[in-house]
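REQUEST ID: PR-0412
SUBMITTED BY: lab tech R.K.
PRIORITY: routine
TASK: structure prediction, single protein chain
INPUT:
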Amino acid sequence: MILHAASIATFFVAQTQQAQCAVQCVQAALGTWWDRLLQFLPQLIVSVIPVAGGVWIADRSFRKTKKLTEESFRATSEKDHERWVLDQKKAEWSQLLKRVAEVHRVLRVVSTTGKERAELIVESLKPAVHELIIAQSNCVFLETFFADQERSKKFFSFLYDADRISDKISGLLF
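STATUS: complete
OUTPUT:
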């Protein structure tokens, strides 16, 4: 059966003639530059203009995003800097107050007798005042506080008086 189908197909293939290919090649006229431009213009409109528009939109978007990012970063870094300065001032105040509390503790020794109290003041007051002076000299962020002459005068007169009292008590004991 398969051979019968193959023989019929071969019969029909042999009977058909191959069609002749007749193509005429004609050289196109070049025409003027205006004609060539008009032929090229639709291709330009379809391919180049949308790409250029997309690039323009992307560029505008990028510039706007960049500007917003820079403004946001600047605002954030300024806030971070302000917070850092406040933290530094807080740390300096903490050190100063610790040293003042130590001086206050030395001067407020109440539970001892007069001589013991005087000896404790002599041996503890000078180091406490010295630590307070060191803490004040390390205050960079409290510069505006110490720039005020009235405050600075009060602070340093306190230190001078404490040191002088320590010397007087020391002179009385020895």
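NOTES: The radius of gyration is 49 Å.
REVIEWED BY: pending
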